[in-house]
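Page 37, top half.
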Amino acid sequence: MSNTPTTTIGKRAVVCQDTELKGEIHIGPGTVLHPQCKINAECGPIYIGNNNIIEENVTIINKYPGKLIIGDENVFEVGCFVEGSKIGSRNIIEAKARILGSTSLGDNCVIGAVCSTNKDDEIPDDTVIYGDHHNRRTQTATSSHQSSLHTRHLDYLREVLPKFNHVRVGGSNTETSPGTLPKKIKETSH
């Protein structure tokens, strides 16, 4: 039996080959990882839930010995940086936003573009961080319409990304070349 870190990819998940995956990483069903993402389970495993969207140049790193658990239906926009100890569900981490240290993020939160949390922060549910001074407020209404848009966005990405990128498709050991049908990939034991 090998002590080699593993990556598991759930059914209907799409992971572009250009994604850098290091350490023990579990990618939930339906999650989409765009090219140039970096997921680094440096000190402990990373568990990514179902139906998350992780866009280009996102870095998610676990610098702590415990598990970094990411909930379901989150959007990590281009160039954001995530450390943290827990990320809830249905959050939006906007472009170039930063979640620092062992921060714990609740559900239905928005970290605005270029905003950051404090290091080792506890962010309650429905928090919005916005503006030049990283102001905070609480959302008073959440939209069921948002969930419908998220689902349509995932369906679109699952259709389009394999047309233009080499991808690993969840639930099988196959990869696709842009615009082709899936083919078997070799299992490696690095």
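Page 37, bottom half:
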Amino acid sequence: MDNMIPIVLTPFHQDGSLDNESIPALTRFYGQNGASALIVLGIMGEAHALSDRERELVVDQYVSAAGNKMPVVATISAPATEVAVERARRAQNLGAKALMVAPPPGVNNPRLLSDHFERIALSTDLPWILQDEPVTTGVKLTADFIVQLAETIPTLSAVKIEDVPTASKIAAIHRMRPELKLDCLEDWEVCTC
């Protein structure tokens, strides 16, 4: 299977403390089972349970463990734009090759959302994945909005659509812009949108 990019686990000890020592073994496991890249600190990766210092440790450990074998995508979502911008810059400095960003919780104003994503995109030169996950964020991104973002932010290279029904949203995006490649992180180059 080409381009399998899992949301990786953040390991913890029984007492709830971060288990950095297990990250190299997890990285090997993902690589041996076909992962071509790793997404760290996703919603399922327990990012909400970590301080920013712990988040940085997780990114650093996965980048170190992956070496040149697999690029690491750092999820930098935050309720405040400045926090997400700072996380984006730190992730790039730690060696992440791309970012994943969900909308800030409860922000449904398209202008505010566009500003949020544009400011994050301008803060680094990394490609990024838009995480469309309304269950956790409470934000429903329309197909029109996603297409508009892709047209205005060239570093938007992929969309992780988790809004059901996903197939109809993907079809709507492709009807509006059939040439738009929203599922492309091949060779970690930004797709031409």
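Margin note: Strands lie at 38-40, 72-75, 98-101, 128-132, 156-161.
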